[in-house]
Description:
Helix content: under 10%
Number of strands: 14
Order of helices and strands: EEEEEEEEEEEEEE
Number of helices: 0
Oligomer: single chain
Strand content: 35-45%
Amino acid sequence: GRNAIDGSLCFDGSGANEVGYPALALADSDDWHFDGDFTMEGWIKRGKPVPTAMAVVGQWESSGGTDRNAAIYLNNQNKLIAYQNRSTTNYSVISASALEQDVWYHFAFVLQGSNLRLYMNGVQTQATSVSGTQNNSTATFFVASEANSNNAGTYSFSGCLSNVRVIKGTALYEDGTTFTPPTEQLTVIPG
């Protein structure tokens, strides 16, 4: 999967509640407990149409409850939707339009204070206010999947991802801003 800035990882997930598809799994860590501002961003190129849901990146267990943190998905309308779970309430923000197959898009999922936002190609598509305490999930943090109750990947992603970056403690894109998506590889930012 060449480009969206010098290369990508491509996945052939099913988008169904099945295990065994390739994904990147990262052990639970305090790095994933977003107890303040955060940014999750990267480049995405959707593969096949989404039958149910495809997990892109995040720490989210399919069985629900409080073992959920924050995650980004493609829904069955091929729209990007991002969630944060706080005090057992799922807050979400969604892209305005469907992602076309084999087209690169930049995404940014940001929490700044109590304002949760989603940006597509540098334009804020939706925002919502959140309240309550951020959950501290113990699920596996996945790229291209989500955790089931056994921490195995499910709802796997089909397509390519590049320059995925997770920043704890920093809302990289301020509320209401429009920005030019990065044209160089993403770098480490403190947080």
